[in-house]
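Quick one: structure tokens for this chain, please?
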Amino acid sequence: MDSGSAKISCTPICFALEYRDIDGGAPHRQGAGGRGGNHADQGVSLKVLGTVDGKERQLLRFDCFDNNPHYHYDPENTNVRIMLDTTLTGNPLRWTITQLRRKLPAMLGRAGYDQLGLQIDPSLLMPALDEVEARAGEMAVRQRRTVRHNRGTQVIEAGNIRFGLEMRATGRDGGIAIHVLGDIAGQEVELLAFDCFRIHPHYHYGPTYKNERIFWDTTLVPDPLAWTLGQFKSGKLPAMLARAGYPTVAAALDEGLIAAKLPEVEERAQAMLRTPPAAAAAA
């Protein structure tokens, strides 16, 4: 792993910050450094670096991710990984900074680098961590990957949500897209998006919020549109909306109305797929 795009020194160690964005099963990443097939996630990765045997080494790493935050002791060797329970710890980045302020020498000792921990000057550590906290907080906001799609060329109302349908094209890829829309604080927000593309079909939880993007395995899901409609029909929409970060929208769904509207959603989607591209553009 890259040691990070921003470094803050605190001799004999330094802190390195990097924003990591991992797509779930992204085809273009499979086979590249073992990252393909990971669960979709993103967030700031904070590394504690030090020189060991003449080489820079990661001593600790804190992956302050949205979905599966965790940290590592001695990630390049023994690599003891511990998951965070965010129900108890709260914001992973804030938790990490708190531990570094209070327990850094002890954590370095557990990682096997107790001598480096003993050499840290507390009077230098706190200002360094102030800078780490400020830079990491800015990085968490500015480098977050989100997307904004069109709402769709055909929109079907279904109570407190609506389904937006459109034919999308992105380079050589494209296909039917279903946007699940809802109103948050008086503004329309895309809650879920299903891009049923020909080459790299995928879907998004909270595209403008957390943007957890997951790619379908087309060997197992050869028809992403049928899969998507199947999730709606089988009652999975409330759970998906909750995972996207919209539990209040999920709780207010009129599932009977949605069931009644799904045949229209399917009929219009299939009609759009049958429409030649030129005719669709002119419509």
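Residues 6-142 form one domain.
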